[in-house]
Design goal:
Length: about 400
């Protein structure tokens, strides 16, 4: 069969819906200043789908740092990959500050979070090593696992007894292969809002010999007394061997970093193919990230505002009978019972008649018969935004239960 013919018949689980969903449910355009209120299809909406946790995207000091970086250096600087000709004192300064902040000896900048995690896994392990990972790991972890030519075992989500059993299997294998064991989990699971059981996994080191890698994309900047991450929140900084964080969430930027011992960080610096053969992070972003990190560390009130909004939103939703699953972080999933057509109708009702924009998640990401509306609180949302959302959710929930969305569909 011709490859193009095959693709035409099988556009993929999400792509198969692109003809009717594109521009509305997928690839929507939010316009205007990055804020809780933005324009969608010509109308102002209250937006709960931006990973701008601390509200830094349009912070005046951040905007000024971005402007200065672009003015002084331009978008092209530095030219080349870091290893060859694209290094600078600012890249190194950011790495040193990040490593210190998250409690590690050194850090290495990565151009993209997704690509970075894939490459970290690919670099760390060989065919003799075994990976043990959480069943609900992010797609970037799964894609990194696909590159691994050795064995991998999955444990039930946040189930320490299941992790112990998989570690027993892994330990027997590495006795024969001479390899090692890498355990991978997340600090904050972005879909459910649950924290990974980092401290319990660290405790398993008393029984098994392994190294622990965590993806803390949602936890960096939001979790812990200083915002250093979920490993700080759970008081197990030393037990986490390799820490991965992104700039796309709390830092409102792009890129990522990995932090560990000086030796391991240098190993990654010289062996991560996605960085060795890629142009360095542009200087305006690096200059802007230095300012973002400074504010993240010095403006604890931003994190306090985030948590005030998140706590008020979640408390109000639970009081009104909504199922938020097992979230114990600021990520706020709202689970409803309904089918795909009901999910699309409900979401359109929220957007068109209530002016509320949030992400919708349905099968195959979650089980059939469930609808997840995913809300991302930020430090720049207000209590008025929370109240408006609570009232709207109560109304659409009543409509859903009455069968309204089975009988009434909306046209895009």
């Amino acid at each position: 069969m011709d490859i193009f013919e095959k693709i035409a018949k099988h556009m993929g689980p999400i792509g198969q819906h692109q003809k009717w969903s594109h521009g509305y449910f997928s690839f929507p355009k939010l316009e205007g200043e990055i804020a809780p209120h933005m324009n969608f299809r010509g109308k102002e909406h209250l937006v709960w789908s931006l990973n701008n946790y601390l509200g830094l995207a349009n912070h005046p000091e951040v905007r000024e740092a971005d402007r200065v970086g672009a003015t002084d250096f331009g978008m092209a600087y530095p030219m080349g990959a870091r290893m060859m000709s694209g290094n600078s004192k600012y890249h190194e300064q950011l790495e040193q500050e990040l490593g210190t902040f998250v409690g590690k000896e050194d850090a290495f900048l990565l151009n993209f979070g997704y690509q970075g995690m894939v490459s970290i896994i690919d670099s760390l392990v060989d065919r003799n090593d075994v990976i043990v990972y959480d069943a609900e790991s992010h797609a970037c972890i799964i894609d990194g696992l696909r590159l691994h030519m050795g064995k991998r075992f999955v444990y039930k989500h946040n189930d320490i007894e299941s992790a112990r059993k998989q570690l027993e299997r892994a330990s027997k294998l590495v006795e024969q292969s001479g390899g090692g064991i890498l355990v991978i989990t997340e600090g904050v699971f972005g879909m459910s809002g649950a924290q990974g059981k980092l401290k319990e996994l660290v405790e398993l080191k008393k029984e098994f010999n392994f190294r622990l890698l965590i993806d803390d994309a949602h936890g960096f900047g939001t979790m812990g007394p200083t915002g250093a991450g979920t490993h700080e929140a759970q008081d197990c900084i030393e037990g986490v061997d390799i820490y991965f964080g992104t700039f796309a969430k709390a830092m409102a930027g792009i890129g990522a970093f990995v932090a560990s011992t000086e030796q391991i960080t240098n190993f990654l610096r010289y062996n991560m193919r996605s960085q060795t053969f890629a142009k360095a992070l542009p200087m305006p972003m690096v200059i802007g990230l230095l300012k973002r990190l400074e504010l993240l560390k010095s403006k604890s009130e931003l994190r306090e505002k985030l948590w005030n909004v998140a706590t008020s939103l979640q408390k109000g939703l639970r009081e009104r009978g909504f199922d938020l699953g097992i979230t114990n972080t600021m990520v706020t999933p709202v689970f409803l019972k309904g089918e795909l057509l009901e999910a699309t109708a409900l979401t359109m009702d929220l957007r068109e008649n209530y002016g509320i924009f949030c992400s919708i998640v349905v099968y195959p990401v979650i089980p059939k018969g469930l609808i997840e509306l995913r809300l991302i609180p930020t430090a720049v949302h207000t209590m008025e935004d929370v109240q408006r959302t609570l009232d709207a959710f109560s109304e659409v929930s009543s409509k859903l239960k009455s069968g309204y969305y089975k009988e009434n569909q909306f046209e895009i």
